[in-house]
Amino acid sequence: MLFYTSFINHNFNSHNRREICPIYIKTMIKLAQKLLSRICANLIGFIKNIIYSQDFIERNRQHSSQFTRDRKLSFPVLILYFCNLIKSSYQPELNKFWKILLGSEVARNVVSKAALCKARKKLKYEAFVELNSEAVKYFNTHSNPQMWKGFFLKAIDGSTIKLPNFTEICEHFGAWNPRLGRPRPYGPHIPDI
User: Fold this and answer.
1) Left if phi > 0, otherwise alpha if psi is -120 to 50, otherwise beta: which for 4?
2) Quick one: which H or E segment has residue 92?
3) Are the beta carbons of 101 and 41 closer than 8 angstroms?
4) What is the pLDDT of residue 167?
5) In the predicted model, what is the mean pLDDT of the chain?
6) Among candidates 118, 78, 117, 71, which has minimal Cα distance to 97?
7) What residues contact 112, with CB distance under 8 A and at least 6 apart?
8) Residues 6 or more apart in contact with residue 160 via CB below 8 angstroms
9) According to the 3-state scheme, what is the secondary structure of 51-88?
10) 3 state SS of 187
11) Contact criterion met (CB below 8 Å) for 167 and 182
12) Which is higher by pLDDT, 13 or 61?
């Protein structure tokens, strides 16, 4: 926002501001996208270092003898496959995954779905829990998210609820003034979790 406010001159008339403002908004959007893409690229590198670390592999395999030989479905490749958004059955998704991984133009059968199921049994689910928590920690420390009263604000529910019509409640929450009838106080509805 400092960039944006430093370029806006308040002495312009409103017609000039209408022409200039969209230009600066587009510039701000591009800057935000570059910043976010840089953070995401660094996050991908951070996750890659975790996935390839021997300590992470040892913690998240079922037996110490698993994922020791050089296979097509190595530990990092298996993790990457399951981190993709899988939309269809295993074999078409495997073919698309290997097409991208190998950089080929045509999808082909490199790994069977039976081999994927066997490899999946060797993997602990805690690997994904750990990766998720590490990714969230990294993103929160490197993106400097804004806080609200000391909390990360993730979503807002705008639903309201009718409140009892008392003076103290009306003063605190305000009142909705219908066209017909008396004012009625409404407040935020906070669901039980």
Assistant:
1) alpha
2) helix 90-102
3) no
4) 83
5) 78
6) 78
7) 91, 94
8) 186, 187, 188, 189
9) HHCHHHHHHCECCCCCCCCCCCCCHHHHHHHHHCCCCC
10) strand
11) no
12) 61
DSSP letter for 104, please: -
Joined together, the tokens standing for residue 193 give: 């979790």
* 161 phi/psi in degrees, rounded to 5: -135, 145
pLDDT digits (tens, 9 = 90+) for 85-98: 788 888 888 888 88
- Ramachandran region, residue 86 (left: φ > 0; alpha: ψ -120 to 50; beta: rest): beta
Cross-strand partners of 136: none
Q: Mapping DSSP to helix (H, G, I), strand (E, B) and coil, where does residue 177 land?
A: coil
Length of the chain: 193
Residues 82 and 128 sit within 8 Å (Cβ to Cβ): yes
For β-strands 175-176 and 184-188, DSSP reports them as antiparallel
Distances (CA, A) of 85 to 62, 76, 93, 103, 173: 24, 16, 9, 19, 44
Predicted TM-score (pTM) of this structure: 0.57
The closest of 29, 3, 25 to 17, measured between CA atoms, is 25
Block residue for tokens 């045509």: 106
According to the model, what pLDDT value does residue 10 have? 44
Could you write out the DSSP letters of every residue in 125-157?
THHHHHHHHHHHHHHHHHS---EETTEE-----
Task: Give the number of C-alpha atoms closer than 13 A to the C-alpha of residue 140, restricted to the C-beta side.
Answer: 11
Q: Write phi, then psi, for 183 (nearest 5 degrees).
A: -60, 145
